[in-house]
């Protein structure tokens, strides 16, 4: 079973109201086997920056929409910090069980009673620290026990108005209206302001949907009346997959907690109780682009323009922090009721350093860049640009690119051919040119997200029909910016050229058992260490092109991965350089 299948096969990306009572899933379908990326190639997710997520929308720039973040004053270390390092370390062998789900939204929608929060109020003298859940990173767990029981917390910067926060500090990023004056909430260790008994002020509401690492609920801040989304996973000891799952979720926390942009879902904080890890996020009620495509069909070009502009705005911000999302696709892009785009699902995001290349094999195959599929020597921020091109095609057709091919064939097509996915005729020349720029196979010649924002396709007043513009800046493929020439050389410095496989190799490849984990396309040894494909959304139909979204057909694909291949690294080590398969490729 293909890895991406395993990961996504059972999850429901749609909002709960889309669930039919008959749409039950087996627990096995929902089991997630995603292992952390190669630690050698990607040492740390995100280096904590001084720019905390706390910033004000009032400072949003007009250009990319990036908000200025304002470092918070450090609290006085002379303050008593009894909970910063406390006894009661817990081994890192906890587990996540809520990655599986067979219940309907209704099953999950019962609000739970207030939970004991492990958040430590700043009023109690807690020092804001890194958002890392250390135990998930394989480090010693710092835990606090406010009620005599072992518990852990996830300290975050203090909220505005806390004793250690300067009055001059601007409000944190929050989903609240910029003019609302409502302060953001910092849940764990930084403003959960839970009761003395540790009861969380965040109340869990209706079930929204399931993801790889757990379930998403609507939440309510009982003190501020604010809605949020709660991503929750159960922490169960003795679950052999828990460590990796928690690492992955921690990665999402690490990345999101550093980000503050109107087109990126805002992180509020997290709480770790005895049973669950809850991550509090900006609630985006419109659902994903994928969901909108499923419900309303393909988007018109003006909508595509609008969404693409915002996607790139968020990406430009992200890439400006040397962080790559790695799973850009319609299902991971949320839309609020005003049409504002929010990039979400940062579970695979990675910080790229000058000294590292990414060798892990992650993402959703249909949106995956060739250099990722080929997995030759590493890849860069440019992989997201490729995925943006695929997402535009998805928005224009309500299907992912390459959808006429089943998963493995699509991977071959992406990795081993020079073909380009079909671009709908009805799109304007600007749009077509934009897509072609994104889908250049050589990542070094792909424009950056910031550069693409200058493309005529995204100009607010650009023509919305097939362009006959004679503009010297036209990207119609014939003028100022020829596609095949590197328009912006050297902007993806970590790129390593990918050699096309010889004919012989291609033959060998096609004769081998194929899966993303064991794929002969993955020709380098270290690749096997990290192999987690994000699946196409369950409701996408492959390979039957005109059947609309049909999860069942794809689920029945004979190319689905064996789950064990994901659980047991040794099963895909068979494809390491020393393996017999490997020898057939060289
Ligand atoms: N901040 C949010 N606001 C509203 N709905 C959300 C939010 N985040 C996620 N959702 C919805 O919750 C469901 C599950 O989301 P989640 O991110 O856990 O799944 P996912 O995107 O499939 O994650 P993964 O790729 O890790 O499996 C989806 O329907 C998604 O649209």
From TrEMBL:
Keywords assigned: ATP-binding, Kinase, Nucleotide-binding, Transferase
A family per Pfam: Pkinase
InterPro entries linked to this entry: Kinase-like_dom_sf, MAP_kinase_kinase_kinase, Prot_kinase_dom, Protein_kinase_ATP_BS
Low complexity composition bias: residue spans: 75-105, 163-176
Alphabetical list of CDD domains matching this protein: STKc_MEKK1_plant
Disordered: region residues: 1-176
Keyword check for Transferase: yes
List of residues binding ATP: 231
Reaction(s) catalysed (UniProt annotation): L-seryl-[protein] + ATP = O-phospho-L-seryl-[protein] + ADP + H(+); L-threonyl-[protein] + ATP = O-phospho-L-threonyl-[protein] + ADP + H(+)
GO CC terms of this entry: cytoplasm
EC number: 2.7.11.25
GO molecular function: ATP binding; MAP kinase kinase kinase activity
Domain of life: Eukaryota
Domain Protein kinase: 202-458
Residue stretches of biased makeup (Basic and acidic residues): 27-37
SMART domains per the UniProt record, alphabetical: S_TKc
Protein name: mitogen-activated protein kinase kinase kinase
Source organism (scientific name): Brassica carinata
